[in-house]
Write a structure and sequence with these properties.
Number of strands: 0
Helix content: 55-70%
Largest sheet: none
CATH superfamily of one domain: Tetratricopeptide repeat domain
Length: 368
């Protein structure tokens, strides 16, 4: 499973950490072991918190003695990033790139800093520059795919994965990522093909159960999805993503009481997860428990890690409840976070047009 760079939890859910709720890259370490700070390529490997300042001071002193030391520059940049000293981290890695323009690690760390600053478009460009220097870095390709997918540039994400298919046996996560993107695009049959191949190489993993269950939900095979998620939970007890999937399956079967139990189990194990909060909020809204529903939605809005796709679903929910003004607010926020997401732009444009906001709608249509 990926490892959260903020709290170190080893059981994140989807693209969100089950511990603190921040967004977690799928391309983070799946081994459960955190690499050492000593590796210039490890961007998701924080040193022990009590040693960070000491490490920064030592590396700063070393850099004064050896101003051309590649390893010292890289280690110092990573330590500053972990410590949250982003301006200094960026200036340090910028100096490194000036000295060593052909070293891909400089662009990679710069990308990580920009991503932490929530400058995702710039981060993608920086990671892509590192790939120009080292096209064999599959982990960075996967990270770029994750970023592209997160901001709605799905076609580009898939185009970067397709050339990696011949590495699938050695890196089955490629198939998993392709399946995830196809699921998000509403293509369950294609996703199942990727998952079938993934199972041959990696076995029946937690991620496989979660995605396969989602394909069944998309195809309205709710009974089968219930059985699959229950089997997954027998192997991976208390996993919040599986509880979330089981809750969604019960919603599909109109078994709301069972759905509430499973969604609450999911939230108990992942209190900051926007996907779980969204599902519980929608269910409470459908059941007429509007105060509880808004409580969940408020927690989504207050989470800086929430992706545009979540606000899209929130906007769609308000549209279903004939609350157009609130839907427009959520959809505009979704578009700010994911300006290239075609469904967000389409639904926002249509909603603005319905609200007689024709000039705003025209501006949205002209942009995609």
């Amino acid at each position: 499973m990926p490892i959260c760079v903020k709290c170190g939890m080893k059981i994140p859910v989807g693209r969100y950490c089950g511990g603190c709720g921040i967004r977690v890259a799928e391309s983070a370490s799946h081994s459960g072991e955190q690499p050492s700070l000593n590796s210039g390529n490890d961007l998701n490997s924080p040193p022990k918190p009590e040693s960070v300042e000491e490490e920064i001071n030592r590396l700063t002193a070393d850099l004064k003695l050896f101003p051309s030391s590649i390893d010292t520059y890289l280690k110092l940049s990573e330590a500053l990033l972990i410590a949250g000293k982003l301006d200094r981290a960026f200036s340090t890695i910028r100096a490194f790139k000036a000295l060593f323009p052909d070293d891909p690690r400089g662009h990679k760390i710069a990308g990580k800093i920009l991503e932490t600053l929530d400058r995702k478009e710039e981060a993608i460009k920086s990671f892509e520059k590192s790939l120009e220097k080292d096209s064999s870095d599959i982990q960075t390709v996967l990270h770029v795919v994750e970023l592209l997918h997160g901001i709605g540039r799905t076609r580009e994400a898939l185009s970067k994965l397709q050339p990696l298919r011949h590495f699938s046996q050695k890196h089955p996560i490629i198939l998993l990522k392709m399946a995830e993107i196809e699921v998000s695009q509403g293509n369950p049959s294609i996703a199942r093909e990727y998952l079938s191949e993934f199972r041959k190489y990696a076995g029946e993993t937690l991620e496989m159960f979660a995605l396969l269950g989602r394909t069944m939900i998309l195809q309205s095979f709710f009974d089968g999805a219930v059985r699959l998620f229950q089997e997954g939970l027998s192997r991976f007890p208390n996993d919040p993503e599986l509880h979330l999937g089981l809750g969604k399956s019960f919603i599909g079967l109109n078994q709301r009481e069972k759905a509430v139990v499973e969604l609450e189990n999911a939230l108990r194990n992942s209190p900051g997860n926007p996907e779980i909060l969204l599902e519980i909020g929608r269910l409470h809204g459908i059941m007429g428990l509007y105060e509880k529903s808004e409580e969940m939605f408020s927690r989504i809005r207050n989470n800086p890690a929430t992706l545009g796709a979540i606000f899209l679903e929130l906007g769609k929910f308000y549209l279903s409840q004939t609350m157009r003004d609130q839907a427009i607010i959520e959809l505009k926020h979704a578009r700010e976070l994911s300006p290239h997401h075609p469904e967000i732009s389409r639904i926002l444009g249509e909603t603005l047009e319905t609200a007689q906001e024709n000039s705003q709608a025209l501006g949205i249509y002209d942009s995609f």
